[in-house]
Design brief:
Layout: H1 4-9, H2 14-24, H3 27-36, H4 41-54, H5 57-61, H6 66-80, H7 97-104, H8 118-126, H9 137-150, H10 162-165, E1 169-174, E2 177-180, E3 188-193, E4 196-201, E5 215-222, E6 230-233, E7 239-244, E8 250-251, H11 252-255, E9 257-265, E10 272-283, E11 286-301
Parallel strand pairs: 3-11
Antiparallel strand pairs: 1-2, 1-11, 3-4, 4-5, 5-7, 6-9, 8-10, 9-10, 10-11
Length: about 300
């Protein structure tokens, strides 16, 4: 099986590439492609190879099929070490976490991937198909194929992230009742909003929970420069706490008061985000104390606009 690096290094131009593919493709496969109505496959494959070689995200996006666009961006990102070029994930908000880990050369970021994808994520970064034995069935074959194609293309030193290796924490105690969530294990996405970054600490997939479950969400905003430790009011735009209870006994949206103390904030892939919450919420019988703690890592982020540096 040819590797991605060999394919790119052997590429000359689109016309020669298309001619070579047509010559080497069995008649049965060519007929199958015609039946599927994807006559432009060879052209897309060769233009994608050209786009990866040139590092052109625009050329990837110009391909005729969305799946080809996504694959082109993934190969471009991992080959050139550009996480920001990775395609959007189909489920998790933000970029494809496997692609981000490969492009960042950081095996610790494989934690952001779905459980079934973590083996192939680590195997490619190690360039070691033996790691694929921990996968099963189709996933094992996919893993071995990707190690063969991509393992040698991920040049450069491997980076590590202590925050991604650490156990995530997301707990809140409301009036003596502890609400713990397993919601931050796949990391936090930082969304750029002008010169600010916003983070939503909650279940990243938004999956429904049981009708009797108590859940909570913390939304934070950060300016271009954050001095640590940083304290912000829960009643301000920089921090918003929401607690959902099945009996609606807490007015969590309008009644949250108190402070969030940010102890760690590293706006980079694999960087730490950590802090505490202390305040109170409205209950029908009066106010109840609230205390909480959160810690996780940054799995995805966009760079701030250049103009923000002057602020």
């Amino acid at each position: 099986m040819s590797s991605l690096r060999a394919a790119i290094e052997g590429f000359t131009d689109v016309d020669a590439c298309v001619a070579s593919l047509r010559e080497r493709t069995p008649t049965e496969v060519a007929e199958g492609l015609a039946d599927l109505g994807y006559d432009g496959l060879f052209d897309d494959v060769c233009r994608a190879t050209e786009a990866v070689r040139d590092g052109s995200e625009e050329a990837c996006d110009a391909l005729s099929v969305s799946s080809a666009q996504r694959g082109c961006r993934r190969r471009l990102a991992l080959f050139h070490g550009r996480p920001a070029a990775c395609p959007e994930d189909r489920v998790l908000p933000g970029r494809d976490p496997v692609c981000v880990a490969w492009a960042a050369r950081n095996p610790d970021l494989c934690r952001a991937a779905a459980t079934a994808e973590r083996v192939r994520c680590r195997a490619v970064l190690r360039d070691d198909a033996r790691v694929c034995r921990h996968a099963r069935g189709v996933e094992r074959a996919r893993c071995e194929g990707e190690v063969a194609r991509y393992g040698g293309a991920l040049e450069g030193p491997r980076r590590r992230s202590a925050a991604a290796r650490a156990r995530p924490v997301m707990t809140l105690t409301v009036g003596g009742e502890r609400i713990a969530r397993e919601a931050l294990g796949r990391g936090v996405r930082l969304v750029t909003d002008g010169c600010r970054r916003r983070a939503r600490l909650a279940d990243p997939l938004g999956e429904p929970v049981g009708v009797d479950a108590r859940t909570w969400t913390l939304e934070l905003a950060f300016g271009p420069r954050v001095e640590l430790p940083s304290t912000r009011s829960l009643s301000a735009a920089e921090a918003r706490l929401t607690v959902n209870t099945p009996d609606a006994s807490l007015d969590s949206v309008s009644g949250a008061r108190g402070e969030v103390r940010i102890e760690a904030f590293e706006p980079q892939l694999g960087g730490a985000i950590e802090g505490t919450i202390e305040g109170s919420l409205d209950r029908r019988s009066g106010r109840v104390p609230v205390r909480g703690r959160f810690s996780s890592f940054v799995r995805d982020l966009d760079p701030l606009p250049e103009a923000c540096a002057a602020r």
